[in-house]
Amino acid sequence: MDSDGTQDARGTQANPVLRPAGPPLIPAMPPRPPAEQAPPPRPDGTAFLTWLRTPRPEALPGVWRFAHRARPEEEPEVVPARQLFSGAVIAFLVGWLIWSLLWNGYLGGWWLLPLYAMIPDSWAQPHSVASVVVVYAYYVLIALVILVGVGRLGRWGEIWRRFGPPAWTRTAPRAEPPPAPAEDPAEWPQLRAAGATDAADRLAGDARAGLMRDVDHARISRAWQGVRTGRHPLATFTGAVLKDGAAACAHPSGARDLPARLASHDLVTGQVRLGATADDARNPYAYRGAGLGLGPDLLGTSLLAVGPPGSGKTGAVVRPLAESLCLNALAGRAAVVVVGAAGAGLGPADAYDVVVRIGNPDSEYDLDLYGGTGDPDEAAAVLAEALVGDLTDPHPSGDSRRSTTVLAQLLGPFRAVHSRFPSVPELRQLLDMAPGPWDALRTGLQGSGHESLLRELDARERQARQPGDVAAVLADRVALLDRPAFAGFFDTSGRSRPFSLTALDHPVRVRVDLPERGHADASRMLARLVLAQFTASVAAREDRSLFACLVLDDASAVVTPEAVRGIQRLRSANAGAVLTLRTLDDVPRPLRGPLLGATGCRMALSGLTPWDGQDFAEVWGKEWIEARDVTDRQIIAETPAGKAVHMLRRVITGKAPTARAVTVRQVERERWSASELAHGVPPGHAVLSLTTVTGEHAPPLLVDLRG
Fold it and tell me: What is the pTM of this model?
């Protein structure tokens, strides 16, 4: 480089000239991004079609039917390995001995007579190739006959299946051939048989294109049932399918699935998988290892689950059942009401149509204290059950008619004057017979033509002067709801959005959060209110084709004589209830037996107390079993030959030679004793008995809720 700083020919810089620093260098432009990638291809419907075409055979109650393979009723007898191999070796030695005796002529030549009868005399002398081939083929045939005989005698085939190559590798399940078009559920043959070919083609195309989900299939199948029963016209159904395809007949919320699923669901059968039956000797062999699936056919008889905190009632039982019922509601087949403490983990709010957060000022919905009815007597009966149902006579014949009468004497006149029922503060004042509201109510009735209602007020005044009047108790219970935390709730003036259980005529998903923290007594009272309103509402439904279910996460202090009677009536109304208890001590002693008898499905989780186990053992009853009393007496050999035989027998069987005496008798034994329920149920397990709405029973089963 020259003195001015130019480079020389070698490309090196010598004696560079110092220049003032200039502006910073502009970095090089980043490389252009590649062309925008096309969106990922839409998934095809292979997975959905495979799921839909999977066989679901008829099975025993409670068996997960999806891809179920039935097992025999009785467990096959398995020969011990040592005895099996010993018998195989002895059978081989016996066959070898027979062949040796035949080959060496110790048994005579009778076994060659068929050979002499088949070959001509010309083959005898001299020996020809044909005669040699025939003779040795005959020898091989006789050897094979002996080999097959001793093989069956020694159970060589069982050894091959249990310890040979078939047992080394698991064979993949055989792929089922594609069903015929007339039997393929993905082709909607029921629609084609009714003449709706265009609708069937549209649905089949959406299924192959991956646009259909299990909820869509269940929802459209439910709508088709409405067409077959005459509730909906065929033209309307066909038009909706041709317009919207897999999204036709949508749920009022517009949702086609839940935000998330935690359990395995099969919406073709309506089942949810809660685990698997344990491979335990106490379970019937046909149930061992099978999945446990519950659906409306079992929940229609109601379910009672009892277990201490941490045993899995909410996470392993309540949450999956609530999730399944919400999916069935999206399919238009069920209505569900889930009641639990706030933050109990009953599913996200997006999974429900209505979320009532009692005591939370941010709650969008309110709870109708009177169940949406306009009949004062009916409203009084439901409200009395909620307020003082736990104070009535706990015997099954007990009721709350006195409390119902008191409330009816107040609700009827108030509604006649104000065209609505009283709010909580107004009801409390009327029960206390506060002078201002009481006089205003009497004044409003005078001259209005309601003389009979005036007589109700007169009767209420006379009863209030008598000792033991229940109005004071009712007022004290109403005071639990007249708190600042509930100031914006139970409004009857029309300013809020109260939810009423009369909406169970529709596939609605409801969650009610109770304010157990700080308001335990009010929470239990509200739980009784929801249960009473539920049993009254489902019995008054006109369309009972929709399955209705109440899921009550904690039924402590909720079970009353009227509640037990209401649960007994749910089966005939196509409804059911799921109740959980920490212990049966939360139920009055006279009601424990009726409660266990009113529920068709009973679950005892691990950690149960022996006292609770005794109640379950009594309701599950006893069974006749075949008891064997075996007496072994060792045989003493006195001769050398006998001692040798005994030694050989010990080598083969692994046991000393004994003379066995067996006594068989029929005895009656508890299916599950209280001690077994308290100490024999592993963690994460439960013992569950099932009853379907058609009357089929499943014995108490040991179930792994984590399987």
Answer: 0.82
